[in-house]
Amino acid sequence: MARGTLADTYVAAIQHDLADLPADATRVGVVRQPTSWFHAAVDENSPELGPPADLLESMRDAAEDMKMQGLCEEGAHNAAWEQVGFGETYREHLEESDEAQAALAALKDRLASGESLALVCYENTEKKRCHRTILRERLEDAES
């Protein structure tokens, strides 16, 4: 059986029909606190794969500080990512959280069984760093 494909996008791209996703892909949200309009754009959500609340909060605070210093939205976001060690902390979350491990294993199994998946969150990764990229790398590593 052929392995399913793995894609990713952001919710605004889906809402505005800009997402280039396989037609058969299940849209899996990976956000901690989805809004009602987020739920409308995805088929399901795995909040345990979203960044931990305290990490999101420290990221938000750092980005706000940087915007006050004159950085644009994207610049502040990306600088805050580095300042709070977002990538490293999120990778630790994936390694140490039993819930995240179980959710990752379930997605890996679904891919292995031939289901195509698209990871979805809020950030446009052409402009901003995003945990979705780390999550996709983790799932792609499972393939090899």
UniProtKB/TrEMBL annotation:
<feature type="domain" description="DUF488">
    <location>
        <begin position="22"/>
        <end position="141"/>
    </location>
</feature>
<protein>
    <submittedName>
        <fullName>DUF488 domain-containing protein</fullName>
    </submittedName>
</protein>
<dbReference type="Pfam" id="PF22751">
    <property type="entry name" value="DUF488-N3a"/>
</dbReference>
<dbReference type="InterPro" id="IPR054495">
    <property type="entry name" value="DUF488-N3a"/>
</dbReference>
